[in-house]
Amino acid sequence: VDLAGDRQGQWPAPAAGCAWRLGAVVLLLAPAADFTERLLPQQLGAARLAQLAAEGACELPSDYPGKRPYLIGEQLLREGRTHCLLNGSTLSLPVPVRIIHGTADASVPSTESLVLLEALEGDVALTLVKNADHRLSTAADTARMLRQLEELLGG
Questions:
Q1: pTM score, two decimals?
Q2: How many CB atoms lie within 10 A of CB 93?
Q3: pLDDT in tens, 39-89
C-alpha cells in the first residue's frame, strides 16, 4: 500500500508509480496534484510572490494554530512546474486508486480531488466526507480509511 502523506507528500505518488512497484493500491487523502501551479500562487498572494522573487523564499502561515509557518522556496515552484500531472492528458495507473477528501478542507479545496478523479483512468473512486477538514483525523475518518484499505486489499 502506498500511503504517501497529504498535500505535497501525495503529489508525486501517481507520477512516480509507487503503487505498481509495490504491487498494491493507492489511497490518497486530500491530494493536491500540481499544487505548485494550481494552489500555491493563490495561497501566497501578490506580496509573498514578490518576496519570493526578490529573496528566493517566503513564509506561508500554517492553517493550524501553534504551528510554525511553511518556508516556501523559489526552487519548489520552479521544480513543481516540471512535474505537473494535470496537463490535459489522462493518467493511467494499473492499480486501484481511492481518494478521500473533506468538504470543509481549507488547505486543499475538495474540487482538486474532482479534477484528479477526472484525469485518472481505471479503477478510481472518490469519497467526499461532509464537513471534514484537511487532516481527516477524527476516529470516523480513520475508520473510513481502514475500511477503504480493507476493501482494496480484498479483506
A1: 0.83
A2: 19
A3: 999 999 999 999 999 999 999 999 888 999 999 999 999 999 998 999 888
The C-alpha cell that represents 105 in the structure block: 478542507
**Side-chain half-sphere of 49: how many Cα atoms within 13 Å?**
12
pLDDT tens-digit map of 101-153: 999 999 999 999 999 999 999 999 999 999 999 999 999 999 999 999 888 88
Q: Which helix (H) or strand (E) holds 152?
A: helix 139-152
CA–CA separation, 116 and 60 (whole Å): 25
In angstroms, the CA 2 to CA 18 distance is 7
Who contacts 134 (Cβ-Cβ below 8 Å, separation ≥6)?
6, 7, 30, 63, 102, 105, 106, 107, 108
